[in-house]
Amino acid sequence: MDQHFDPIIVAFCCWHCSYAAADLAGTSRIQYPTNIRIIRVPCTGRVDLIHIFKAFAEGADGVLVAGCLKGQCHYVDGNLKAELRVIFAKRILESIGIEPERLEMVFVSAAMGAEFASIIREFVERIRSLGPNPAKLKKHGQLKESTKSRE
Predict the structure, then answer these.
(1) Does residue 4 lie within any of the structural domains?
(2) Is residue 3 one of the residues assigned to a domain?
(3) Which of 3, 47, 56, 131 has its CA 20 to 30 A from that of 77?
């Protein structure tokens, strides 16, 4: 895919852990792509399917849900509920012709700034290799023949 394509990534980050990890990466001056648009949420358990699909519908090429480490959620099991929603959302994406790899759930602690930056770098490269969000292309009438053949 075009290496000049700059994907738009929406990341729903829990306030206590993953947002703090992003902040740590920034204050530690750890470089990661600026393609990410972070939305701070109290807990990833608050991220509903509508939020994920709205991000894609509004033009996101990838969506990341980043929560506390398993077993360490500040709201008991919100991150585990979010993980189940992400798994379900991936099945829905696949059924409508959008690669489920465009959606990911990750678990990081507040002390994992370097790991957060690494996750972002890897996710941006994955989305770059997939190309633009097919829903965005359809919306703007730019759907290529190669994408049409997959439908």
Answers:
(1) no
(2) no
(3) 56
**Cα distance between residue 97 and residue 137, in whole Å:** 13
Task: Indicate the number of domains in the chain.
Answer: 1
**Cα–Cα–Cα angle for 132, 101, 139, nearest 5°?**
30
CA–CA dist 91, 134 (Å, integer) = 16
Per-residue pLDDT of the chain (151 residues; tens, 9 = 90+): 455 899 999 999 999 999 999 999 999 999 999 999 999 999 999 999 999 999 999 999 999 999 999 999 999 999 999 999 999 999 999 999 999 999 999 999 999 999 999 999 999 999 999 999 998 766 655 544 444 444 4
CATH number at residue 144: 3.40.50
CB neighbourhood size of 30 (10 A) = 17
